[in-house]
Design goal:
The complex is a heterodimer of chains A (250) and B (269). With 250 residues, chain A is mostly helical. Helix content of chain A is 81%, strand content 0%. Chain A has helices at 3-24, 36-49, 53-81, 85-98, 107-114, 119-142, 146-154, 159-196, 202-211, 215-248. In chain A, helix 3 (53-81) runs antiparallel to helix 8 and helix 8 packs parallel to helix 9. The longest helix of chain A is centred in the C-terminal third of the chain and has 38 residues, at 159-196. The two termini of chain A are 17 Å apart. By secondary structure, chain B is an alpha/beta fold. Chain B folds into two domains: 37-64 and 73-83 and 160-268, Rossmann fold (3-Layer(aba) Sandwich), CATH 3.40.50.300; 91-158, no CATH class. The chains are: A mainly alpha (250), B alpha/beta (269). The interface between A and B is medium-sized, with 21 and 23 residues.
Chain lengths: 250, 269
């Protein structure tokens, strides 16, 4: 563990500890927030009883259904766009401003088009995630050293073999950044959509509990979402670290 | 000496049109040159004279605007020919592959059988002094070792023509001299024709059978010098008085051209 890592843990623990103290002393009243230790206990109970299993499964399944296609479509789109400089000159500014658009504004429209099922939520998660993959993959492809592409040509590789055998592996660290963002964005898209209007899922349950002042469900669910998204990101981060270790040669 | 012609450039010229303007830059030629089979030919010239373009034309990485390039009697015309290996100045190792996988890259693509591949890679690793590094990654190696990996990757394909584009440009002087020795050894062992581009006059004088001197842009061949070195030679020929004479003659031809190219750069900046 590095010194920075220890400080990071100290910071998070200190923050949780401070909230714990504020809650236990009544500075933060019970209706506003539960003490963190209660959240943990309730979360354990919730998982043990299985009362939220369906909601958790629905949200995570939908997130996977959003981010796997976002990764595949994002990478393929970037690879297809990369050689066409003129098309990119047109599209690059659009990609750059994409995240200025509140995609959630389209959610009602998606419901009208696709109905109040899982489809509009998955589509929203996909829409939020896919452009991050495109932007980061293109960024990585732009940085592939020309000499590697020349090496591929000297080895008489075609455009497809070059793209998948040389360019994407070379761009891998950037692609991975896009993938990490896609995981976070798709989860945000799904949970946000569930919050606004849905018939189930973690976002829906949080919103439902909130409307009923049910802190014993709301806070543990928020905690669970934090644990899941940080967990997935940490796993991807560890994988990325292994890739980077090779590159940096330690 | 009348040896078989291996590569022939006839009236080869190359022009580029600049992006975002209608200017046409005449980069190279016309060049007439024949490489003899099995010879070591070096090209020196001022920077920006089109040396690398000439190499890319022979490698089939780009096609000529005028004239023709032939390899073993067949026209190249922008098609990458079989039997040609290229080593670039920049580090061309694939950083995500081990040294073994890097060297094996072309063999695997050529679908050679596993035993043959393993055998060729092992021999290349031993020959290039990379033993013990087969399972390392390029980032764990020094610049000189990485360049040896690239040379090994080219050699395992058993090319009949090896094109080297300033392969030692990024290395320090001592390493360059030793790499020069290794290159001479490999050239003798492989029997391949070698075409070396360099900006180092002493490197050209030490390594090559013949040296082509190029003019400032548009690059043309001003002079072709026969060094007359015996085939069995190494870096110790730098002590030979003829080495000094050759280097001096190269510099005489190049001095004015280099000044021209510097003047052009100064005028355009």
């Amino acid at each position: 563990m590095t010194r920075a890592g220890l400080w990071r843990i100290a910071l998070v623990t200190g923050f949780a500890g401070a909230i714990e103290v504020l809650c236990l002393t009544g500075t933060i009243d019970k209706i506003t927030m539960q003490a963190p230790h209660r959240m943990l206990v309730d979360l354990a109970k919730m998982i043990a009883s299985g009362s939220m299993n369906a909601a958790i499964a629905k949200t995570l399944t939908n997130a996977v259904l959003a981010f796997l296609p976002a990764i595949a479509v994002g990478i393929l789109t970037a690879v297809a766009l990369f050689p066409f400089k003129r098309v990119r000159n047109v599209l690059d500014p659009l990609f750059a401003t994409y995240y200025a658009i509140p995609v959630f504004a389209f959610y009602p429209l998606l419901i009208v088009m696709l109905g109040l099922g899982d489809a509009p939520q998955i589509l929203l998660g996909f829409m939020l995630a896919v452009v991050a993959v495109i932007i980061n993959t293109l960024n990585g492809l732009d940085r592939v050293p020309r000499v590697l592409i020349k090496t591929a040509r000297v080895n008489r590789m075609g455009p497809l073999a070059t793209a998948f055998g040389v360019m994407l592996p070379s761009a891998a660290p950037y692609v991975l950044t896009g993938v990490k963002l896609a995981v976070a964005y798709s989860l945000i898209g799904i949970i946000g959509a569930e919050f606004i209007m849905s018939r189930g899922g973690m976002g829906y349950e949080i919103s439902f509990a909130y409307n009923n002042f049910d802190n014993a469900i709301m806070y543990p669910l928020i905690l669970l979402i934090l644990v899941v998204s940080i967990g997935v990101n940490t796993l991807l981060g560890l994988w990325e670290k292994r890739l980077m270790l090779r590159k940096s040669g330690r | 000496m009348t040896a078989e012609v291996h590569v022939a450039l006839r009236g080869v010229g190359k022009s580029f049109s600049r992006a975002e303007s209608s200017d046409v830059v005449h980069a190279l030629g016309p060049i007439d040159l024949e490489l003899r089979k099995g010879e070591f030919f070096a090209v020196v010239g001022p920077s920006g004279c089109g040396k690398s373009t000439m190499l890319e034309l022979i490698a089939g990485l780009t096609s000529a605007t005028s004239g023709s390039v032939e390899f073993e009697g067949a026209s190249i015309a922008g098609r990458i020919p079989d039997g040609v290996g290229v080593v670039f100045q920049e580090d061309a190792c694939f950083p995500w592959m081990t040294i073994r996988d890097n060297i094996d890259f072309g063999l695997k693509r050529a679908k050679l059988d596993a035993v043959e591949r393993r055998d060729r890679v092992d021999r290349a690793i031993a020959m290039m002094g990379l033993s013990g590094f087969a399972e390392s990654y390029p980032a764990q190696l020094s610049g000189g070792m990485r360049q040896r990996v690239c040379i090994a990757r080219t050699l395992v394909m058993k090319p009949r023509l090896i094109l080297l584009d300033e392969p030692f440009g990024a290395l320090d002087q001592q390493t360059r001299l030793l790499m020069g020795d290794e290159l001479l050894k490999l050239w003798r062992l492989s029997g391949a024709t070698v075409f070396l581009i360099t900006h180092a006059l002493d490197e050209a004088a030490m390594l090559a059978d013949r040296i082509g001197v190029m003019s400032a842009r548009p690059g043309r061949l001003l002079d072709v010098i026969e060094t007359g070195w015996p085939k069995e030679r190494d870096s110790r020929i730098v002590e030979d008085p003829r080495f000094g004479e050759i280097t001096a003659r190269l510099w005489r031809s190049l001095r004015e051209e280099s000044m021209k190219s510097m003047g052009a750069a100064g005028a355009s900046s």
